[in-house]
Amino acid sequence: MSLLIINIQGLLLGTHSKTPLIGDKLKTAEILDNAFLLIVHGRIADWGPMSACPERADEIIDAAGGFVLPAFCDSHTHLVYATPREQEFVYRIQGLSYQEIAEKGGGIINSARRLQEAHEDQLLEDAHRRLLEVIAQGTGAIEIKSGYGLTVEAELKMLRVIRRLKEISPIPIKATFLGAHAMPMEFRENREGYLTLITEEMLPRIAAEGLADYIDVFCEKGFYSVEETDRVLEAGSKYGLIPKIHTNQFNCMGGIEIAVKHSALSVDHLEVLNETEIACLRNSGTIATLLPTAPFFLNDEHFPPARQLVESGVAIALASDYNPGTSPSGNMPFVISLACIKLRLLPEEAINAATINGAFAMGLEDELGSIEKGKKANLIITKPMPSLAYIPYNFGGSIVERRIVF
Ligand code: NIG
Ligand code: FE
Fold first, then answer.
1. Best of 246, 297, 329 for a ligand 1 pocket test (most atoms within 8 Å of beta carbon)
2. How far is the CA of 203 from the centre of ligand 1 (A)?
3. Same domain (yes/no): 114, 260
4. Distances (CA, A) of 275 to 174, 251, 309, 379
5. Beta carbons within 10 angstroms of residue 141's beta carbon
6. How far apart are CA 382 and CA 384, in angstroms?
7. For position 347, which CATH number holds?
8. Which of 218, 223, 292, 320 would staple 338 via disulfide (CB 3.0–4.6 Å)?
9. Which pLDDT band, with edges at 50, 70 and 90, does 325 fall under?
10. Residues 163 and 28 in one domain
11. Which domain holds residue 11?
12. 320 and 184, same structural domain?
């Protein structure tokens, strides 16, 4: 089966790299003008100028002057949840903070209560609908976390939903176990009890069923301490689970150091970050995953110091953090716009951070994230546009004309 895309105004070519793009390389964007792209059996087979375009293929798509880009690799989401939390959005407009809402049993605890009551089939149906929605917005691979279960059964239920979603999904999915997302109310006076539940009951069962690819902890004041994070990551490593952790969303408290100590694949959020932590990330192999829609939606003035990270040679990825509390959207073109506007990334840097570096942040760099021969042809065809910078410039618009996923 061959598929030929013709009349591509600009084809964004990737250069093979064994490591995420860092520093000056992050703005690499080789564009072939007036090009064709040939896909064979779902893999990128060839490209070139239209003057050398093959004459035949099983199917031909006319890009009609649009650009062709790799689909977005969204390496951090909480796509499986029971109900939206728009009431908390209203509370915040009225002046309550995210942490105040969490302390009152809202926030993650509220989502956990709802998810514990929800039926697995319903969770699957809702998550599947959201998945198709983000694919339509240009996502071509996605990571999904548990963490709204917070009981053995409900965490397993969430991870089984993710597994079933993997089976029916048109795009690759990676699953992350986030049992240490918030402390359940009934364990607030017995934190030890819940940590033991994670390490002695949840982890062995998750490993036995092969339900998770990664392990996550929300390392933050009011959630999990550095020592607790260390312990959960240590327990996860016994089952071969690589960490991707939430840290530095509101406070610098040592989460970065502990993540690097455990060779985390990524540290995510980093709205607050000090010089020592940036130095610790440099050459660590851990990717800084930035989630600009979270502080935007919380109306928090702190956005991650992306420029400093890039200029220090730290690898950055961009992801949506799609979740009902802090980012009820998985719209990656909007994430890219915000990254340009609030993080001062150049359009090319933001696009690379949302594609190839996102693929690295979910272990999919050999398969996805860039237009290279042999890679899976999960791609976006844009509407006709003058240049790559038009994507973030056109914020809130719908620049994706067509998606191709295999
Ligand atoms: O990445 N910060 C922790 N977890 C999510 C929010 C979860 C929620 O509020 O439901 C995040 O922002
Ligand atoms: Fe998150």
1. 246
2. 21
3. yes
4. 31, 14, 10, 37
5. 26
6. 6
7. 3.20.20.140
8. 292
9. very high
10. no
11. 2-70+370-404
12. yes
C-alpha separations of 382 from 28, 73, 241, 255 in Å: 20, 17, 37, 39
Under the banding of pLDDT at 50, 70 and 90, the label for residue 15 is confident
Q: How confident is the model at residue 103 (pLDDT cuts 50, 70, 90)?
A: confident
325 lines ligand 1 (CB under 6 A): yes
Tokens found for residue 126: 């809702």
Q: Is 176 in the pocket of ligand 1 (CB under 6 A)?
A: no
The encoded tokens of residue 91 equal 């509370």
Please indicate, yes or no, whether residues 58 and 200 belong to a single structural domain of this protein.
no
Same domain, 63 and 82: no
Between the CA of residue 98 and those of 14, 108, 162, 185, 305, what are the distances in Å?
39, 10, 27, 17, 21
Q: Which pLDDT tens digit goes with each residue over 34-67? A: 999 999 999 999 999 999 999 999 999 999 999 9
Q: Which two tokens stand for residue 377?
A: 């042809």
Residue 102 — very low, low, confident or very high, per pLDDT cuts 50/70/90?
confident
* Residue 111 Cβ contacting ligand 1 at under 6 Å: yes
**Cα–Cα dist 72/354, whole Å:** 6
Number of domains in the chain: 2
Asked if residue 244 lies in contact with residue 265, where contact means CB atoms within 8 angstroms, the answer is: yes
Whether residue 149 sits in one domain with residue 215:
yes
**Each residue's pLDDT tens digit, 186-240:** 999 999 999 999 999 999 999 999 999 999 999 999 999 999 999 999 999 999 9
List beta partners, residue 219: 224, 247
Indicate if the alpha-carbon torsion angle 212, 216, 222, 224 is positive or negative: positive
Q: Can you say how many angstroms the Cα of residue 164 is from the centroid of all Cα atoms in its chain?
A: 19
294 lines ligand 1 (CB under 6 A): yes
> Closest Cα partner for 22 from 352, 276, 381, 319?
352
Pick from 216, 200, 201, 138: nearest CA to 171: 138
Percent of residues in the chain assigned helix, strand, coil, to nearest 5: 40, 25, 40
61/183 same-domain check: no
Q: What is the CATH number of the domain that holds 8?
A: 2.30.40.10
Atom number of ligand 1 nearest to Cα 220: 2
Q: What is the mean pLDDT of the chain?
A: 97
Q: Is there a single domain that holds both residue 275 and residue 384?
A: no
Dist CA 364 CA 75 (whole Å): 10
The answer to the question of residue 52 being in a domain is yes
The pLDDT value given to residue 104: 83
- Average pLDDT of the residues in 271-285: 96
